[in-house]
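Example 3.2
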Amino acid sequence: MTKPRYRLKDDGFATIKKIYCGNTHVGYVFKEADGFRAKIKNIEAYSPTEAQAFQQVLAEHLGQSVSSIVENSDDFLHMPKVQAHTQIILTWLKDNCSDGKLSFSNTDLAKAIGKEKPDRPLGNLISRLDFACYVAGLPSLGCAADATFKDAWQAQGLIDQGLIDWEFPVETMSSRAKSHRWSNRDFERIAAETHRLTSGLAHLLWKEEFAKHEARIKEWCFNPGP
């Protein structure tokens, strides 16, 4: 028998969503001035993002860790796997950030989501994270790795499509990402942007953005982050 899963339901209120377990209403998520407050019975959780508040209160309600809730999203949540894996990677990076500095490989990220080695779906996740970094005005997380993902930041396809006429400054982007002091707030901003993305496929997000805002992306690439 399938377990009832938890979900957020929008009933048209600007600042409130309901939490359901199957068809049973069990709690709320409230939008407040400085973030979100989630409540199930007498348990409350606060977070900068709606999804994180929802996951935190659910974790406490079920006696689970947040990472367990996300990793087993098929059992607990109505959440696309790409977003679940995105959040696992962000949590791993946040937990392994030492004094604001990141030191990791793409193999580390693959293992964080249960893979033996980097593959194309992981490349999509990293590219999608980089898009969120771009929107947030932060350096590329993918460029903070010991080596960029295979085939990342290859300009030829975009040049062939007439979308750009320049090469990506990968060395500049990597240097900026590795020297940046990453904060908890940075990871929260990136997480919030990933929840706003309209597609799980990074190449569709980037293609649309290049068609509309090529100059903005170029500025971010050559001057990435604050």
